[in-house]
Amino acid sequence: MGNLYAVVLAAGKGTRMKSKKHKVLHSVCGKPIIDHVLDRLHELGCDRTICVIGYQGDTLREHLEKKHAVTLVEQKEQLGTAHAIMQAKDELASLEGTTLVMNGDHPLFTLETLQRLVRSHQEKRAAATVLTADLDDPAQYGRVIRNGNHSVQRIVEYKDASEEERQITEINTGTFCFDNQKLFSVIHEVNNNNAQKEYYLPDVLSLLLKRSELVHAVKVHDAGEAMGVNDRQQLAEADAYMRQMILQKHMEEGVTIVDTSNTYIEPEVFIGADTVIHPGTFLRGTTMIGEDCQIGPQADLTDMVIDDEVSIKYTVASGSRIEKETTVGPYVYMRPQTHLRKRVKIGCFIDLKKAELGDGTKVSHLAYVGDARVGKKVNISCGVVTVNYDGKNKFKTIIGDNAFIGCNVNLVAPVHVKKGAYVAAGSTITNDVPEKALAIARERQTNKPGYVEKLWAKRSQQK
Ligand code: UD1
Ligand code: CA
């Protein structure tokens, strides 16, 4: 491949979204639309990527500069897609190579499709190659007009098309490859004599043909990829399409998805073979899951690292690590920096935060363990609370191997229950407990024999 440049158009207002937020910052499968486009271009290995911004340029700039290596150029007035390309003239016009143009609102193209487009364009030494699609419902997309010998003649926008032209089902996806020099040699000739009084980029094709340049078309294999997002309906459709593509990829890799209509997996998630994903599960961010796991029903996991043979039910968890053969749930909330080592058992209604739990440790019922380092084979009984916060600062609880923390114990941090120690039920522990000691910190029980009858006798006299 010779030099490859990319221009992404994202200056338009996206009126049809009816949103305060910039259209390309809306998410598809948990990731902003523009990030899908720019990630593909990054994978494609573009030497230079330029993004044209305008409407809400500041918010978009802030987002793009944080995440992508792109050059931003501003289109002050949105006078059309050709006018948008002209804003990249200073950056590109002097360079030799291929320029790939994409709309910022098309999140679904695969790397393979873009590679096929670029390859075809370069092999045929075309001046321009347009990526097209055959759609059952071509909606308001621009239509591809071909002549008698079937070569591309021009593209007509929906608003300018005749009834007959609107019957054409082959549409312009807004993705093009151009010979960079040829693009910039004709683009200033585009005019705005059309229904929208805009400078249309697709008009470049007719201008090149007039100069006897080669113009080709490449069709996407899967028309689903061709979809642009202009309104909320298309946003939902794009999300559904990408979701199915992601699920399909995991199933091809040996993952069982019990209900594909009720499972939501973001693009960067990894799942090992023979893991079963049960319904109502959301796997987000950079979550990585090993083999032979049971995930869900109802697991909402973000940026998790999970080893093999782990089971997680009815759980919200983020930013944490879970080692082999550990079971979690039902009804667990796991906040970041939790680390569950091997064969840990986390039962029902447990809140964990910044807690490290050693091999074989159990927290079976109704407990809060936060800012804690817990050793191996510890039993944390029902209702235990690490009292980690004094209203201003957080303090740490340390529990040694083989310790036993009885029911309804408060561990007021900073505190250290050492190896093999026992803490009696109902204790509020404020001092360290030595190794193998039993700590009891509660009032002794007093029984008053026959007291209830005396009490009632007294009351009836008072009446
Ligand atoms: C465009 C194409 C149409 C194609 C469709 C595919 C034109 C004239 N029409 O139509 O043939 O079928 O995409 O989705 O190109 N933009 C700018 N500056 C502008 C105008 C637009 O940067 O002045 C950006 C928008 O932010 C958007 C992209 O260009 O990301 C396409 O613009 P949009 O208005 O959505 O074009 P469509 O009407 O969808
Ligand atoms: Ca569009």
UniProtKB/TrEMBL annotation:
Residues 1-232 are annotated as: Pyrophosphorylase. Coiled coil: none annotated. Its cofactor is Mg(2+). It comes from the Bacteria. Residues 254-463 are annotated as: N-acetyltransferase. UDP-N-acetyl-alpha-D-glucosamine binds at residues 9-12, 23, 75, 80-81, 142, 157, 172, 230, 335, 353, 368, 379. Keywords: Acyltransferase, Cell shape, Cell wall biogenesis/degradation, Cytoplasm, Magnesium, Metal-binding, Multifunctional enzyme, Nucleotidyltransferase, Peptidoglycan synthesis, Repeat, Transferase. One of its GO terms (biological process) is cell morphogenesis. CDD domains: GT2_GlmU_N_bac, LbH_GlmU_C. Acetyl-CoA binds at residues 388-389, 425, 442. Its EC number is 2.7.7.23, 2.3.1.157. Binds 1 Mg(2+) ion per subunit. Residues 6-218 form the Nucleotidyl transferase domain. Catalyzes the last two sequential reactions in the de novo biosynthetic pathway for UDP-N-acetylglucosamine (UDP-GlcNAc). The C-terminal domain catalyzes the transfer of acetyl group from acetyl coenzyme A to glucosamine-1-phosphate (GlcN-1-P) to produce N-acetylglucosamine-1-phosphate (GlcNAc-1-P), which is converted into UDP-GlcNAc by the transfer of uridine 5-monophosphate (from uridine 5-triphosphate), a reaction catalyzed by the N-terminal domain. Homotrimer. In the C-terminal section; belongs to the transferase hexapeptide repeat family. This is Bifunctional protein GlmU. It comes from Seinonella peptonophila. The lineage of its organism: Bacteria, Bacillati, Bacillota, Bacilli, Bacillales.
